[in-house]
Amino acid sequence: xxxxxxxxxxxxxxxxxxxxxxxxxxxxxxxxxxxxxxxxxxxxxxxxxxxxxxxxxxxxxxxxxxxxxxxxxxxxxxxxxxxxxxxxxxxxxxxxxxxxxxxxxxxxxxxxxxxxxxxxxxxxxxxxxxxxxxxxxxxxxxxxxxxxxxxxxxxxxxxxxxxxxxxxxxxxxxxxxxxxxxxxxxxxxxxxxxxxxxxxxxxxxxxxxxxxxxxxxxxxxxxxxxxxxxxxxxxxxxxxxxxxxxxxxxxxxxxxxxxxxxxxxxxxxxxxxxxxxxxxxxxxxxxxxxxxxxxxxxxxxxxxxxxxxxxxxxxxxxxxxxxxxxxxxxxxxxxxxxxxxxxxxxxxxxxxxxxxxxxxxxxxxxxxxxxxxxxxxxxxxxxxxxxxxxxxxxxxxxxxxxxxxxxxxxxxxxxxxxxxxxxxxxxxxxxxxxxxxxxxxxxxxxxxxxxxxxxxxxxxxxxxxxxxxxxxxxxxxxxxxx
Length: 482
Fold this sequence. Notes:
482 residues, 67% helix, mainly alpha
């Protein structure tokens, strides 16, 4: 009787809503007190006082609060996936619920990341002061411009980013320029604009998944209510949401419209935000020409590679003065944060760099081997799902085996193509997005980037390994999406 009640009633949906409201309460209290956005301390310090290495009572309390709320939301999220057909009897109710939850996370202030203020500041420095963000840092701008010294948007930029030129592809600073320009220099308005932008993208992504999967509730909810998407995509306003949109748009035009040109263009634009998107394009092209002989596959792939590179190059030409424009891509890989390489970098950073380069080379070899094998594979052996599942495994290998500066929101990269996974792989892949955020509690109880992230990577690996033995979802609950 109890199980029937849990399956048929709205208890999980209502509980999810309540937990989300509790999760945003600190932000509401902060705003009701009349506090300013300029005074907001993000980056793992919202729930407590100034960060320090001392383990205080308030730190323990805030850690329990965060893991309890986020963990509770994640637990109920899986229950909603499990009973999705009984909880949402029609698609309209599902859509309304996703919109309501998404708006709640729109209200929530950036809690564990200051990146959005980097985006805002970078965009404003270009929109208002006319600098090229690939060649002039905010620190340099402030040093040369008296007006910039008292600019509230530039003052809010994290100190670690003020000296750093842009580290993303050219599509992102262009969007930042537009969004920050609309704020007219008001920091609160700027934050709201960026949040609204990501909210719209999130809802668009949910709709694209709904269409691509032929209106499957399970996969629509899997993305639309994913706690990490809501938290890091809407609350912390990371630009992964834009990359996901561009990838999904490309996949939509490929699957539903059979338009390979628009697919290549959208993937190129995604790559011109974050470079990892380039890993997907060969799999789509080779599937499109799967009936062709190997030589023709290579020829067509080369032709589309030219189109792809032309689009990416056109984006870079907006900012390019010299080859320095590509420096930002390498900047992130030069840091050691939250990755498996942190342990090595503690004793010898130079050795860590060599190991990272060896791992990257190893990944490239494996990746090329898989691509070459697909080129010479006999036609009809693999479905599109088969192609994408190979890509997903390579992407996870890339995430955990090559990136030296790893962040929890990077695990969002796997979501656009996770909808082609079968139940067996979903049971261990999907929880990675949850574990990635839960592991951030090591920074609540200690200090951000303690031992440059070694506890984080260890905690994440342990949770993933444990999950392989205790899957969250039973096989029958996640049917294959061929």
